[in-house]
Design brief:
Helix content: 25-40%
CATH superfamily of the largest domain: Ribokinase
Number of domains: 2
Radius of gyration: 18 Å
CATH architecture of the largest domain: 3-Layer(aba) Sandwich
Number of helices: 10
CATH class of the largest domain: Alpha Beta
Number of strands: 15
Structural class: alpha/beta
Length: 312
Amino acid sequence: MKKIILAFGEVLWDILPSCTVLGGAPFNFAYRVNSLGDTGLMVSRLGRDELGRRAFDQIVQLGLDTTYIQWDEHLPTGTVQVSFDEDDNPDFVIMPQVAYDQIELTDTLLEAVSTADCLCFGTLSQRSEKSRKTIEKLLERSTPNLKLLDINLRKDCYNLETVSFSLQKADVIKLNEDEAHQLGRMLGVSHQNIPGFCEEMLDKWSLEHCVVTFGEKGAFAMSAAGEKVYVPGYRVKLVDSIGSGDAFSAGFVHEILRGTSIDQAARFGNVLGALVATKEGATCPVTVDEINLFRNQNYERDIYPDVEEFIN
């Protein structure tokens, strides 16, 4: 059965060394859940400028509903300067005071979130008061539904107040290893090992699941019921890592909304993330046949030693 999933936050242009591509974690996530057969609805705001018009046209071309894309007459469309280190890890310089900082609360938005199966949100879109107040109201209205916090800790775009608020409202938190260590230091949570971090997060906050990704070395997931699973990474030829974490989130939520185990959800998210990393662009098309073929390939696996005892 098709699920309705709202993704709140940034639609922006990633300005890479070689090209400019449309992105933003919630946008990549919305596209990917939509491609899996669910209804991914993007809630964002674009500037009434050339980049905004290009973004809107591309959103339409990608098959996403534009009902909840707003326009701003004064602020520009969001942009990010992306650079890479020698290991191909991205670094982001995010432009402040852009259109997605001013997402307005509307009656149609409140109606949509009250009937959605899931609301995905992060901390970047809470850096300004206007968008922060809007997501607060949407979270209040979405109480019965699954709330995914894809935290995305970006430099100068989060603080203790927004992080604590987000954790209070979330059912699922997804973050990468570096973010787990940052969050551990910020909150005074043990982060010497990932299982201990997840256990303490689940004890401290009213979360159902805590999921930590390790890039090419897979992901660890733990539930409030005490289930623990680690899925090793796939040793694939890396083309573009941007969007693979968002693809993991999409795959994980797609399964969780259907009542599957965290083991199955983490496995599917891991497959989807790895497959996207073999293609160029966060919104590269991935078919069901490609997913099934990937699953049947005998790829070597990369194991993160801290959690290998939880391999099922």
